[in-house]
Amino acid sequence: MRYLPHTDQDRAEMLAAIGVSGIDDLFAGVPRDKLLGGLLDLPRRKTELEVTRTLRAISRKNHAAADGPFFLGAGAYRHSVPAAVDHLIQRSEFLTSYTPYQPEIAQGTLQYLFEFQTQVANLTAMEVANASMYDGSTAAGEGVLMAHRVTKRRKAVLSGGLHPQYRDVIATLSDLAEDRLAVLPPDPMGAEDIIAAIDGETSCVVVQSPSFYGQLTDLAPIAEAAHRHGALLVAVFTEVVSLGLVEPPGAQGADIVVGEGQGLGNPLGFGGPYVGLFATRAKYVRQMPGRLAGETVDAEGRRGFVLTLSTREQHIRRDKATSNICTNSGLCALAFTIHMTLLGELGLRRLAEANHVRACRLAEALAGIPAVEVLNGSFFNEFTVRLPRAAAPVVDALAKEGIVAGLPVSRLEPGRPELADLLVVAATETAIDEDMARFTEALEAVL
Amino acid sequence: MLNRDDRPTRPEPATRRRETFTGNRALQLEEPLLFEVGRTDVTGVDIDVPEHAGDRLGRHRRKAPIGLPALSEPEALRHYVRLSQKNYAIDSGLYPLGSCTMKHNPRLNEAAARLPGFADLHPLAPQATVQGALELIHELGRWLIEITGMHSVAMSPKAGAHGELCGMMAIKAAVRARGEDRTIVLVPESAHGTNPATAALLGFTVVAVPAREDGTVAAAEVRRLAGEHEGRIAAIMLTNPNTCGLFEPEVCEIAAAVHAAGGYFYCDGANLNAILGKVKPGALGVDAMHINLHKTFSTPHGGGGPGAGPVVLSEALAPHAPLPAILRGTDGGYRLVEHAEDEAALAPFGRMTAFHGQMGMFVRAYAWMLSHGADGMRQAAEDAVLNANYVRAGVQDLMSVPYPAHPAMHEALFDDGFLDGTGVTTLDFAKAMIDEGFHPMTVYFPLVVHGAMLVEPTESESRASLDVFVATLRDLAMAAKRGQTERFKDAPRFAPRRRLDETRAARQPVLKWSPPEPIEDAAE
Asked: Transmembrane ranges (chain A) (predicted)?
């Protein structure tokens, strides 16, 4: 077996050195009747060539995003990532190291995490960011739990513009942790009055902008109302590239900002692994979940970095910890930070502008189809259209032509007939004019 | 400066002579922060912005500068390559970090995860266009079920602790479905800190189960606690093999005791690598167990994630598994069930995450499994256990083994008894290993032994590699006993940094870069 260095002779000699007669002597703690006599009912080992063939065959049953016109976002965005990113994250020293428990030989990881934290804090206009979470949806759940700890209240109010699966993740946590929740109905028009739902028991309001439907929301009045009631604003985004062009939550009074960072550096990857971003005010840092890299000095006075404030964490606090999380999304955070470093302020603004322009062009093209209506007052690179018929069969019909038209809202919000004709459409910098033309023509033809 | 584990956190100051003008030492290159060398008026990515009149941002356009410097591509390559060279990695040397299973990461798996059909695939693309992805997840789940002897699997949890949360949520949902109010979760003292943290998150009260003299949990103690808290035990969370590297000999009796008390058995699967193909956890009475794909199935640890933590479930808990579910139809097609109402047989407790889990990790883990097969996986577990015991046998006359009565499983535990009177601590010993070119073992965990050192070599190490490692441990142990304390107190001397001041980092947290204060003009 190519990954196992021992020969049978090595094994025999090592067993002799240990002083046992057979390998099963080392499994002496296992009840004898539980020790498997034979092999598992699974195939035998395969060569690298065989494994490659098998997996290639499975992968070919999928229709990759690059295979045709592609306009799907809804929490996962297709962007062009410089080849240098994937090369660098495959450096052995990044790929095959672990959590930097021994900082003297993990300065590479610790320094990029410190840089990542700074980028995320600046991008969201917040004072402090952690070293990343699993993804945007779990970060949103942790954001709500953190707000409960800060306010010592246990009721969250969720906007109807929140990604339905983010809402479901928060709802699951609230249900099983026995917290309270007020959920506003789906809000495709961006017209809800969430301020009216805040009361003296509210720990936080959770608002996404751009919303699941693409609407941009003015967060400042919501933050103000929340603060008046002693509650926090948890601001959510699913498309990090939007922050290159859109007013950041930190400038609008948000107390906790959570979001999905996949859009920079990370492929669609069928939903994971992604990288959750999490930022907050400095005064709340000790209530923040997740890992933190911090600056310090070594014994010779040189600058260095360590994991810090770990007294919040489970390996020390156990059942008093702020969260049960013990990993971040290190390698995805690295991909994010490299892509962001390559872009810089100038590149990110241009990237965001390119996305917005492409989406504007697509919105104009789709609005030109009779009986198709663009619902958004404002948007970044994603918007919602109302079709003259149910969206799901339209998407399926276009998929047969190799066009991925967007997300029929009914896929995530079944049982709501008023949403059945809505389609959420995204256009990133990868959406070329020819693809938009094919999509527009094909859509008009099937309607 | 010592913390409550007697663990030094503030290094002794040392004087340093300036050896080179740059501060570099040949291949050890100092690298400033991105924010000190990057510029906001350059970019490393060329982007075409098409012409367009007007925008649809409304009044939401960003006003202030962001503060994001860039590096051009050659500068960026150098920045990150230099950073990478300050990291120890499995590919550089032995990384015996106990309970983390730092085994070889085959590059075949990396290539497979990057096939466009997996990497360039949207999680919400129409189901007819993602049949291969659903097939792979379903098939990986089938392998996990066969390996563990369990009834079903929930694939979506994103890491071990997330899997643990998932398993405990399923238990809470099952207790609720029975109309009962059970609030107590038993957690052994030796458990990983995530176990009590997870239980507490769900509102359970944690009751600690003391370890026996030999490092294992007594079924009699579990029975006693079950009696004391009759009708209130929701679950026990037991790691097996446990964090002392021992197989719990009374695991079946413990399972029976918990079941008799009406509770469920959550098994922390962190140490599955020891028993892969040797024992099926399902046969031990387990109701839920998370599987760290990044440990046992070798998906890369990536500097601390991403992980993946699918949870296998018993028949009793299976209906409560979270969404989504992937079902195979009679026509051979796969169906992704995203809503409870779409499948009558399911009573899901909810959803752990957006989308369907760590697909990139699934592909890598499945590639690892296909490569090993039933025979290779069994051999891997046996070699992992062999290697841990070989290390233990090689040093047990010099280092102290707290539980000598049992063979080790895939990791060997030592305490700091052998350092008594030497003035050398576990942390000093670990730092001296760095100078010798090794990553230290896990230190000060588990908490049940004093100054713990937990060594997990994994199956990836050759005998020659282990021999050098054992010889090094022996040399260090003898040096400590001979009183060569400077070799330990000054360590690490040859790493990119000497010991770092953790106390200062925590007392005066600096968590992001800030522009230096402007210097007052001296002329005025």
From this structure: none
